[in-house]
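REVIEWER CHECKLIST
Item 1: Sequence provided? yes
Item 2: Single chain? yes
Item 3: Sequence as submitted:
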Amino acid sequence: MYLPAHKFYIDSIGPVTPSATGQHKFIEIVLRKPAQRDEFGDEKYPDDYFQCTVWNDKINHLPEIEEGDKVEAVLNYQGRKLLDRDTGKTYYSKQFNIQKLTKL
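Item 4: Structure as written out by the authors:
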């Protein structure tokens, strides 16, 4: 499911990493959404953080970015239901993939 474009700060950028099978490569980027502020400019809530992944060829389309940069990002949100075959317990996972990233 694609989410509408939002503005973020780059909180951290990881290195290009091969997947466990070696067939893919990815980068982990943490995006920070600043908290809502009250009429005095004080934060009403804490900032939101999103650990996101950029896969394979999309890495080549990333702009030159560094920590602290302002960006606009289109994210793809995926949720999965997983079954632990050993315990029979159901788990839920969520993942954010960056589909488009523009430096502001």
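Item 5: Key structural point noted by reviewer: The mean pLDDT is 94.
Item 6: Recommendation: ____
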